[in-house]
Design brief:
The protein has a single domain, classed as Aminopeptidase (3-Layer(aba) Sandwich), CATH 3.40.630.30. About 30% of the residues lie in helices and about 40% in strands. Strands 1-2-3-4-5-7-6 form a 7-stranded mixed β-sheet, with helices on both faces. The N and C termini lie far apart (about 40 Å). The longest helix has 15 residues. It has about 170 residues and is α+β, with helices and mostly antiparallel strands. Helix 1 crosses helix 3.
Length: about 170
């Protein structure tokens, strides 16, 4: 792996769709947690989806990418992404937050979330909600989300467990 000195969070652009597709699949298939079986992970992401799929999905929401800049070549690679669905009245549903396994544990997920939250506050959102995985629940709890209930997503015949969480933005404005 190249040496990366800095990270930047930028609004999503269609040129990142292919990288996001590969990143999502890698992140899901790299999960090693007792609560997720190999069958569940295969259902969550059986194979990388098309760049067209990801571009449509992220273009229909507000999304950002986390970019790592190579110290030597100055090239940037997409090492994470986050998006929030915005078609609800004054509330957003955080659809995705994925950070490349090699870059996890460096605070990039928190940084990406804080960019999203600042944007949501500026837009006057009253609430954010999400379905957190076992892996992301701790991050979202630290960010002020409260678990409302257990959640289950059905994909390709598998039930993938998680946690429906909400954050009241009114008291944070």
């Amino acid at each position: 792996m190249a040496a990366f000195a800095q990270f930047d969070i930028q609004p999503y652009q269609s040129c990142y769709a292919r990288e996001v597709s590969a990143l999502f699949h890698l992140c899901v298939r790299s999960i090693s947690h007792t609560r997720y079986s190999q069958a569940q992970l295969a259902a969550w992401s059986a194979a990388p989806r098309s760049a067209k799929h990801w571009n449509l999905r992220l273009s229909r929401s507000k999304a950002w990418v986390v970019l790592a800049k190579d110290e030597v070549t100055s090239a940037s690679i997409c090492c994470g992404f986050i998006n929030v669905e915005t078609h609800f009245a004054r509330q957003g549903y955080l659809d995705s937050l994925y950070i490349h396994p090699d870059y996890q544990g460096q605070g990039l997920g928190e940084r990406a979330y804080l960019v999203l939250e600042a944007w949501a506050k500026a837009k006057g959102f009253m609430r954010l909600s999400l379905d957190a995985s076992y892996l992301s629940k701790g991050l979202f709890t630290r960010m002020g989300f409260i678990q409302i209930q257990r959640s289950y997503q059905q994909k390709l015949g598998q039930m993938i467990p998680g946690f429906y969480m909400e954050k009241n933005m009114e008291k944070n404005i």
